[in-house]
Design a protein that fits this description.
The protein is α/β, with parallel strands linked by helices. The chain is built from 14 helices and 12 strands. It folds into 3 domains: 178 residues, 3-Layer(aba) Sandwich (Rossmann fold); 63 residues, Obg-related GTPase Ych/YyaF, coiled-coil domain (DNA polymerase, domain 1, Orthogonal Bundle), CATH 1.10.150.300; 64 residues, Beta-grasp domain (Ubiquitin-like (UB roll), Roll), CATH 3.10.20.30. The chain starts with a strand and ends with a strand. It binds guanosine-5'-diphosphate.
Length: 365
Amino acid sequence: ALTTGIVGLPNVGKSTLFNAITQAGAESANYPFCTIDPNVGIVEVPDPRLQKLTELVNPKKTVPTAFEFTDIAGIVEGASKGEGLGNQFLSHIRQVDAISHVVRCFDDENITHVSGSVDPIRDISVINLELILADLESVDKRFSRVQKLAKTKDKEAVAELEVLEKLKDAFENEKPARSIEFTEEQQKIVKGLHLLTSKPVLYVANVSEDDVLSPDDNPFVQKVKAFAAEENSEVIVVSAKIEEEIAELDGEEKAMFLEELGIQESGLDQLIRAAYSLLGLQTYFTAGEQEVRAWTFRKGTKAPQAAGIIHSDFEKGFIRAETVSYNDLVEAGSMAVAKERGKVRLEGKEYVVQDGDVIHFRFNV
Ligand code: GDP
């Protein structure tokens, strides 16, 4: 399963946030594909469409979809030189598909900051630099070999060398791979290098309880947003402490507490949705009388493989996908009316499933 790793310097609020994630945690029994590991937190993806479909169909049961956060401990300055838990830290990052980078944006004199003061941009740079140095080492290792091959006019080597040079130049200027523009061909080469700094990043600005209502007044948050904008990354503002409290509440209590605080959606829910989309994940629905359910697929997945997410037999025996978009279905008010209006399409093997599709798969057993 795709996962996003939570990283950050010590004392920025990672554990507090990860606690909130596991507290809010999904019943892993519902999600047999998820990893069982103390460092993995399974979260349900909040999706108002699921509620709406439940009202339309009135099923016995409604099941949201879920995905994973992985807690990655142990970053220290010098990780790329193998200091402390350094190597382990880097190898854990290698295994995740996206990074949620927690930065401290709260002042609290009782909580020591590892570098003595609150400065989120410096904190971001400390971690980013370790990842950049590790990537520089990987690129350097390939460089001389590819350079030799390129001299023999080997076409692939020439193309790769160009990419390596671009990367090396960026790394030496402390820029991550994700900040560089590549052509589609070059992107394929970059992908093959399995770099740490080409993974998408989401910055999580952890603010004090008092700042949740107007986070943009917090100068640290402003700085993080400006920084992230430059590398096309997103920022989510949370107060890890409050999230920990919210996570202990159930549906109705949670809604009341949020209303009291004057916020629409908890920071954790925002983080979950942002991380989900950062991973390139989308949702389709099945809506029967027994069960209305959300399913996660990778953007670009075709109908048979999407069916295989439910059960491998669905993929093997795939005939067609009876598909209606969420909007068309809601507008019609019922599946029957949607059919009358010709909104239910019969899609075949080449159909690329779209976010929000409500699908009934037909298959041979
Ligand atoms: P980690 O080392 O990054 O995992 O940080 P922790 O989650 O252990 O948090 C370090 C300290 O900061 C703990 O004492 C937390 O209670 C405190 N802390 C975390 N988030 C917040 C917050 O939003 N506001 C305040 N005031 N303290 C926080």
